[in-house]
Specification:
Chain A is an alpha/beta fold and about 675 residues long. Chain A has 4 domains: about 15-155, 2-Layer Sandwich (Chitobiase, domain 2), CATH 3.30.379.10; about 160-190 and about 375-475, Glycosidases (TIM Barrel, Alpha-Beta Barrel), CATH 3.20.20.80; about 200-240 and about 250-365, Glycosidases (TIM Barrel, Alpha-Beta Barrel); about 500-670, no CATH class. In chain A, about 40% of the residues lie in helices and about 15% in strands. In chain A, strand 5 and strand 6 form a beta hairpin.
Chain lengths: ~675, ~675
């Protein structure tokens, strides 16, 4: 091995497959140069930092040492030192110039130089230090000689300055521990914006001291106190993460009206919405009282949230209440406001001046982009790349969320392929600079604290890499390889994306015996996009979210691996895959009898039984296809007709879920047909 | 089947084995009379309650409906109604007389009458309703016809009025979500006192607005704000649970002195203690300033906690600082205080008057029972039954904790056998009445939020049954049968006693492939009593609690079941057990090769490898013993010597843990020897 491999600037990994096989970094750093020395981690390992344990860097080091020791169990020292300890053990020196500010564009770079003697982590700001420590933890490996980090020089900085996760805490509330563990997970993949969607038709989720009926009547008791919000902000700040609040108005605001019906454009009374969708209630943008209220309330919230950005929502206001309100119609005529878009624009102008008075920059969804919108309003683009382009060409900063809707349970490769600034968008350099980055959006119609983590993670790590790493880091298989590693590492900071699945299975089965259920659910995914809402189940906050589609993970790994095996056989004619395919198919075929023993006395498992039978059928067709491949003359018309029919049936949703191996078996089936 | 089985008052189950096999109730109610009708639960099931959803009963019903539907997925209505809905479905009528007060001796009884037509839950107080709803949820069963409850009449009330769980939040802090999920679990088994041990050498865990340096300097940032404490109190109150605070003084108080060294009997400075044990620092009981401080502080806390009881600790004050302090010695001479016990008694008297002024009853550990202690002080007995008896005979109310130290990881049967008022204590009726009940104590030297739940649950359910059910409910096997059911049901309210184990295994293995580790850990227990502290590991709050003894569950079920099989064979000469025993032994024997594949590159698994080899040896001896049983003439002296040696070696601790199947295999081994 060469002493140092030459660095390929921008993205070394796509050109260095040898190391691409080894490294466990996610997101991939901008520049990585591997050395050949081994930095051995032993009990004497210590950190050198000239700081207090109350600073951002100091706290990060304390967390770092704890996590490192939790994993390696070397019983290392949990304190840090001003100078390396002589002859005690390997050490990591940490140096930074200044405290980082929490705003987009702040210096986030860091460098990490690890040799056999020492490791040095340098950064302009302590935020870079936070990132560098995560990178170090990702580098830790082990073999029979102990724990170590491979010698390396890393120079890293993000591609985009805005790498966000939106959590909708309204449709279903996320208690504070859900928020903090997700902040930790964000920090692990170097995301830097937590966007809290705090008000909705289904709930008003933050304490207002100025207008307490907002949270007291608008929330069923599930809201963050201001003390808790301050705690979240500090917790995020410690990890270099900003917290951007969103109050979605004038639509999506039913919960405001429960306590303050006078804000609405139609008479009350209102009650908290339980169903999901777009609803009529909207603020009356023509009343002075509305702005008096919003001025007081938004000022309260502007003071609570230190971030310089403030999100006012603005999406999906259907205008029905405005159309039906005579006073509003009269007002529009009088002021020459031609339509609801213009009226909302007028409303937004008022909001903007409140925010500006509070020294905040306004963010809104696509819909706020109307003629006359001041240039310093930021657009969050959810409807498509066209909106992104339009915003940028009109001079607005813009954040991409379209394509990052993780609630729609698309696979990681699809999220990964979604670039906020793809070259085919044909933007000028200046326009390109207006694209701040992107935000994964965890809309919460169909999630609860039990399964929200498994909807966010690990897929959001793929988005995080898209937003951090160079654009040409895009090898899907390598992303998945590293995502599998991250999947397990995410657990070490408390994310419950894996552990709750078996708990949910035990709850249905009322037993420890869940292996057959697990075998089935491993190849099932919840229906994607908005299809779950059209399967006859009247989703509302009242429903139990403990059913098959709530338990099944998005992007089923077992189905993905099986598909790769089938492609290996069918496309690459690599018959070595056959044994694995056969083993897998046999397992699925034989699983049903075991599952039926459990399900027969559990009514909640009736649909599982149905799906399990379909899997049995599909597996049988797969096995038959494998046989017939060897001798295609055994294929009969009857078999083709029957199999086709069964495969089509198995491709249909059951309990808002789908079997993810049908397509692969279809591939085997067609391959078995005489040419 | 008879239409009604005759009830055996007091405890029907011990006399009705037929139903003892069926029922899933824990704690066992005072009186149960089974009917033969079936109360079928379908989508139309609804609750009838003349109340608001903001009341204790109303909130309990909302939680009840949610949990029922989460399990059955029938999509039942989440609201409740003033009258039964005509022809809609089965219903549960709830009636109570008044709001229950949170104090010992409050009426806690309820009755539940379930026929095929309707279910009626009645109680004097809403606290009884909370219990009755838990009982209903435990009764829910299912078969191929659906979900149902067997017709039944239950009249239930507790044997003891004080059924507590102490959580030490000092040695390791338990964030608020740990507390709330454990409150929910307590409610499931009808416990009614959460005792929070809030100050210790290792941490001061509550915000004081009067003396903020207590929590700011005494806690490393991990403490409850007063807002959080109010939240916990309300959360517990909703579930009929009292919150009793403990501030352990004059010893165990190092963390107080970090911010206020002037309180101590020796000069500072002090820093937060990281090690475990009994330490010297103690308050100076001779200074007026001490009482001025305590008066202010305790008054603040008395106002914060509404419960009428207040715990001042008082244990393990070793008196060293008092002995070494000239002023204290001088004071003692001057005031004719003969020894440290008398001095602490003097101190306690001062505390008592502060508490009395605040209308609180004082509780303290055994040590406060000194001549002159006023009768209304309550003794919490941790040192033994003698202390319990002494307190009662001296006229004090008393709570038993000795024998309920769940941190010492004794098996459930042992905790279960520990009666707070056994007949051999020979107390008069009046003395007997002074025994309020008991408290499980979760001392937190060796637990973190990751594994505290698995130290508390499910074993504490056995203690809960001891404290609730009639004294003659004591069949161990039936207790274990029901404990296994509770074990899974406890997960439905969020207890993480099961799920975190596999996460901890994945963290060590850095992989999904953990089956061989699980096979091993399933027959391992952490060392019991205080033995973990004498194995050479310098335990402190700095250590990682992610190791083998932190992962292994107390009371390993697989080892317990294996032991029963061996007893079946050896003691009852039931050879049908042989097949199962052999299968189990073979599994353990073959496990090592699989485990070694994982452990070879994971240094943290070195001890696991050692233990796995021992298990392999032990299993081999077991298998050989099975063979030789059939033909004892094949037993050679060499085999006996070698096996004996290996079994003895395997009985030794490895990494503060022990193999729990050695004793059982020893039984097989000795059975195989020629008589």
């Amino acid at each position: 091995m060469l002493k140092y491999l030459v660095a390929v600037i921008c993205c070394i990994f796509s050109f260095a497959p040898l190391f691409a096989q080894q490294h466990q970094l996610m997101p991939v750093p901008k520049e990585v140069i591997w050395g050949e020395q081994r930095f051995q981690i032993d009990k004497g390992f210590h950190v050198v930092l000239n700081d207090t344990s109350a600073s951002r860097a100091g706290k990060a080091v304390v967390r770092f040492l704890r996590r490192l020791d939790n994993r390696t169990q070397l019983l290392i020292n949990k304190e840090f030192f001003r100078k390396p300890l002589n002859g005690v053990g390997p050490y990591l020196v940490i140096q930074y110039d200044r405290k980082g500010l929490l705003k987009p564009g702040e210096e986030e770079s860091y460098s990490l130089q690890i040799t056999g003697d020492q490791a040095i982590l340098k950064a302009a700001t302590d935020i870079g230090i936070v990132y560098g420590l995560e990178t170090f933890l990702q580098l830790v490996a082990s073999d029979n000689l102990g724990y170590y980090v491979n010698g390396v020089t890393i120079n890293d900085q993000p591609r985009f300055v805005w790498r966000g996760l939106l959590i909708d805490v309204c449709r279903h509330f996320s208690p504070i521990d859900v928020i903090t563990r997700n902040i930790d997970a964000m920090a692990m993949v170097k995301m830097n914006v937590l966007h809290l969607h705090l008000s909705e038709d289904q709930g008003f989720r933050i304490e207002s001291k100025v207008f307490p009926k907002l949270h007291l009547l608008g929330s069923n008791g599930d809201y963050y106190t201001q003390e808790q919000i301050k705690y979240i902000i500090q917790y995020a700040s410690d990890r270099g993460i900003r917290v951007v609040p969103e109050f979605d108005i004038p639509g999506h605001a039913t919960s405001w009206f429960v306590g303050y019906p006078e804000l609405a454009a139609a008479k009350g009374p209102y009650s908290i919405e339980k169903k999901f969708g777009v609803f009529g209630p909207s603020m009356d943008p023509t009343k002075k009282q509305t702005y008096k209220f919003l001025n007081k309330f938004l000022t309260e919230m502007c003071n609570l949230f230190p971030d310089e950005y403030f999100h006012i929502g603005g999406d999906e206001n259907n205008g029905k209440q405005w159309d039906d309100n005579k006073n509003i119609q009269e007002y529009m005529r009088k002021h020459n406001i031609k339509n609801n878009h213009e009226l909302q624009n007028y409303f937004n102008g008022k909001l903007l001046s409140i925010l500006q008075k509070n020294k905040k920059k306004m963010i809104g969804w696509d819909e706020i982009l109307q003629p006359g919108l001041p240039n310093d309003a930021v657009i969050q683009s959810w409807r498509g790349k066209e909106g992104l382009k339009e915003a940028a060409t009109k001079g607005h900063q813009v954040i991409l969320s379209n394509g990052y809707y993780i609630d729609l349970v698309q696979p990681a490769w699809k999220l990964y392929a979604n670039d906020p600034a793809p070259s085919d968008l044909k933007l000028s350099d200046n326009e390109q600079k207006l694209i701040l980055g992107g935000e994964a959006t965890m809309w919460a119609e169909l999630v609860t604290p039990e399964n929200i983590d498994s909807r966010i993670w690990p897929r959001t790590a793929a988005i995080a890499e898209r937003l951090w790493s160079p654009a040409d880091v895009n090898a899907v298989n390598d992303m998945y390889r590293r995502l599998d590693i991250m999947n397990i590492r995410l657990e070490e900071i408390g994310v419950q994306h894996i552990i709750n699945q078996e708990m949910m299975l035990r709850r249905i089965a009322q037993s420890n015996e869940i292996t057959p259920l697990l075998n089935l659910v491993n190849v099932v995914e919840p229906l994607k996009d908005y299809k779950r809402h059209s399967q006859g189940i009247p989703y509302s906050t009242d429903l139990p979210f403990t059913r098959l589609p709530d338990i099944a993970f998005p992007d089923a790994k077992e189905a993905r691996v099986f598909k790769m095996l089938c492609e290996q056989l069918v496309m690459k004619k690599d018959t070595t895959a056959k044994i694995e395919i056969e083993k897998q198919l046999l397992g699925w075929k034989n699983n049903h009898n075991e599952l039926a023993l459990i399900s027969r006395n559990i009514p909640a498992l009736k649909d599982w039984e149905k799906l399990s039978l379909l899997l049995q059928d599909v597996a049988a067709i797969g096995l038959e296809s494998l046989q017939k491949m060897n001798n295609r003359t055994t294929v009969t018309d009857q078999w083709v007709t029957d199999s086709n029919k069964k495969l089509k049936e198995a491709a249909l949703p059951v309990q808002e879920s789908e079997l993810m191996v049908v397509e692969s078996v279809m591939m085997l089936f067609q391959y078995a047909l005489p040419k």
